[in-house]
Amino acid sequence: MTPSNNTQDKHADTPTTDTLYASPSDIVEGFRFDDKVVSVFPDMIQRSVPGYSTIIHMISQLTARYAQHDTHCYDLGCSLGAATLAMRNGLGAKKCHIVGIDNSPQMVARCQSLVKEDTPEHIDIRIIEADIDGVDFKPASVVVLNFTLQFLPIEKRTALLQRIAQALVPGGVLILSEKLAFDDPRHHELMIELHHNFKRSQGYSDLEIAQKRQSLENVLIPESFPSHQARLKEAGFSGVELWFQCFNFASMIAFK
Ligand SMILES: Nc1ncnc2c1ncn2[C@@H]1O[C@H](C[S@+](CC[C@H]([NH3+])C(=O)[O-])CC(=O)[O-])[C@@H](O)[C@H]1O
Ligand SMILES: O=C(O)C(=O)Cc1ccccc1
């Protein structure tokens, strides 16, 4: 089977539109990656994260640039495998061990079948159900955390990044995409407003935006770019740069 060049193909043809927050609810529950979210996830993330498909495409390019023969390439918090498949496409003829990890059993089950049906047998690719907090990383050249670290309790973030830095081989990189907070309150509010305008332009109603915001409260905890930069340096990375930003959504590259 020929793998698709466009990593979004498998996801773009999922017809299910995200209407999870469309009806008024007395109690908005904390956001969870359950069956309901899995069934609408490609549509939800595409319409909620400005620049998501650009970031996915660029992960292929960054993988092409930084992946090293006979090392591991990790996609941590892989959801339905969009970044995993982007990494696979970026490898070309390089032989690497691709590992996608997620702790949502529903995500993992769907991701395994999507990846399997799109990947030739000879490619070494595995999707594992695990908490990234407890994984023992093998020598790696490219590690991706595409909008995952923001869901890990703040006190666990440094230890995870230290373990990633230790596992990276010389010349290896971490690609870290996150929703950002900003120190200047005016700018912080402006970015939230522009993000909500983006969601409105994607067809979400004010009610959907408000209820989703409430469900993400204390579940998705954004930090500022200077905080990420300082923590990554403390964890053992020698350099940290921003390579993409649209409003309060950004992607960084951290060099071992
Ligand atoms: N401790 C954890 N261990 C493992 N997985 C976790 C953990 N916490 C959260 N997750 C998983 O991290 C993923 C975050 S979504 C990533 C999108 C994807 N990267 C993409 O490029 O499409 C981002 C979003 O929905 O905003 C979910 O699948 C969680 O189950
Ligand atoms: O929808 C939002 O407001 C977000 O911050 C992005 C998002 C996308 C998918 C799941 C959770 C959060």
Automatic annotation (TrEMBL):
GO terms for molecular function: carboxyl- or carbamoyltransferase activity; S-adenosyl-L-methionine binding. It catalyses: prephenate + S-adenosyl-L-methionine = carboxy-S-adenosyl-L-methionine + 3-phenylpyruvate + H2O. CDD domains: AdoMet_MTases. Gene3D superfamilies: Vaccinia Virus protein VP39 (3.40.50.150). Residues 1-20 are annotated as: Disordered. InterPro entries: CmoA, Methyltransf_25, SAM-dependent_MTases_sf. S-adenosyl-L-methionine binds at residues 52, 77-79, 102-103, 131-132, 146, 213. Pfam families: Methyltransf_25. Residues 75-172 form the Methyltransferase domain. Its EC number is 2.1.3.-. One of its GO terms (biological process) is tRNA wobble uridine modification. It comes from the Bacteria. Keywords: S-adenosyl-L-methionine, Transferase. NCBIfam families: carboxy-S-adenosyl-L-methionine synthase CmoA, PRK15451.1. Catalyzes the conversion of S-adenosyl-L-methionine (SAM) to carboxy-S-adenosyl-L-methionine (Cx-SAM). Belongs to the class I-like SAM-binding methyltransferase superfamily. Cx-SAM synthase family. Homodimer. PANTHER family: CARBOXY-S-ADENOSYL-L-METHIONINE SYNTHASE, TRANS-ACONITATE 2-METHYLTRANSFERASE-RELATED. This is Carboxy-S-adenosyl-L-methionine synthase. It comes from Marinagarivorans cellulosilyticus. The gene is cmoA.
